[in-house]
Amino acid sequence: VLSLPKKPEFLIVKYDDSAIIVRLRLYSNTNNWYALYSDLMKKLKPALDKAGIEIPYPQRVIHTKSH
Question: For residue 66, what are the CA distances in angstroms to 43, 60, 61?
Answer without folding.
Answer: 48, 20, 16
